[in-house]
Design a protein that fits this description.
With about 180 residues, this protein is mainly α. It is about 40% helix and about 5% strand. It contains six helices and two strands. A two-stranded parallel ribbon has the order 1-2. Helix 1 links the parallel strand 1 and strand 2. Helix 2 packs antiparallel against helix 4 and helix 2 packs across helix 6. It is globular and about 65 Å long.
């Protein structure tokens, strides 16, 4: 038996194999395929723009607050969310109210950033053009910090979402090394 298994860019390759050469392998596994690259990159650029707005950055403590609340809301306090489609977690429940203790709530720009991470870039009709990230693992190693926030605001440019969006738009879309995707619309 011969199998093709890939994840992310490898998942995209697996989808292409299934379309173009379906008889080459006995089975094909396309895990988390990074397909529809233009929509994917545009959505990640939007997420980065929200995180870069004044007050919009989400530090590890904020990610932990989001994760804990999502798990309480959608996993009854368990370790993971079994049914993501049934999860109706809105980070707006964490928006700071008068007298709230710092670290126990999110500012309005942080709520907007969290919503952008979960829903992706909205289209003209308000619906997401490309899905965002699912809740429940925001503070885990290799999760939101690796893909979205970096370990600090100073290192956000090292996150995969920032790097991939910036490089894709600079070199593939615009052919301009000075293009700043954070200022694009």
């Amino acid at each position: 038996q011969s199998y093709f298994a890939g994840c992310s860019a490898g998942g995209r390759e697996a989808l292409m194999m299934a379309q173009r050469f379906p008889m080459v392998f006995d089975g094909i596994v396309a895990g988390a395929p990074a397909n529809y690259n233009t929509l994917l990159t545009g959505s990640r650029a939007y997420m980065q723009q929200m995180l870069h707005r004044p007050g919009g950055y989400l530090a590890l403590a904020d990610l932990q607050l989001l994760q804990d609340t999502a798990l309480r809301t959608c996993a009854a306090g368990g370790a993971f969310i079994r049914d993501q489609k049934a999860c109706r977690f809105d980070p707006g429940v964490l928006q700071c109210k008068a007298g709230a203790m710092p670290g126990q709530c999110l500012t309005p720009p942080q709520v907007a950033s969290a919503r952008a991470l979960y829903t992706g870039r909205p289209g003209p009709d308000g619906r997401s053009l490309f899905p965002g990230f699912t809740p429940g693992a925001e503070a885990m190693t290799g999760g939101f910090q690796a893909w979205n926030t970096g370990s600090s605001f100073e290192t956000i440019g090292q996150s995969a979402g920032h790097s991939i969006s910036s490089q894709f738009l600079k070199y593939f879309v615009y052919g301009d090394p000075s293009f700043d995707f954070l200022k694009s619309d």
